[in-house]
Write a structure and sequence with these properties.
Elements lengths: L9 H25 L15 H27 L3 H13 L1
C-alpha cells in the first residue's frame, strides 16, 4: 500500500493558508471595528474624541482593503488548473 506524503507541496500549502486568511479577514475586521465600542463614552471620565475613533475605523478599513488586495495579487497569477488541483488534493486528504 502506497503511503501518501506527510507534507503538502509548497504551492498547495500556501494556497490553503491564503484561503484561510481570506476566510479569517472579515472576522478580524469585525472584531477590530468593535474596539471603539469599548472606549469610554462622553459621560464617563476621560472620553475618547470622536476624531480619534474615526481615524481608527478608517485605519482598519484601509488595512482590510490592503490585505484583500495583497491576497488577490498573490492568487491571481496562479492558473486555474493549479487551483483546482490544490483543491482536489486538499479534499482527498
Amino acid at each position: 500500500m502506497a503511503r501518501s506524503p506527510i507534507f503538502l507541496e509548497r504551492r498547495g500549502y500556501r494556497l490553503r493558508r491564503m484561503k484561510d486568511a481570506v476566510r479569517f479577514l472579515p472576522l478580524l475586521g469585525l472584531a477590530l471595528w468593535m474596539v471603539p465600542l469599548m472606549w469610554p463614552a462622553q459621560g464617563e471620565s476621560d472620553p475618547m474624541p470622536l476624531s480619534t475613533a474615526l481615524q481608527y475605523i478608517f485605519g482598519i478599513w484601509t488595512f482590510l482593503v490592503a490585505s484583500v488586495w495583497t491576497l488577490w495579487r498573490r492568487t491571481r497569477d496562479l492558473p486555474v488548473d493549479a487551483l483546482d488541483d490544490a483543491a482536489r488534493q486538499v479534499e482527498a486528504d
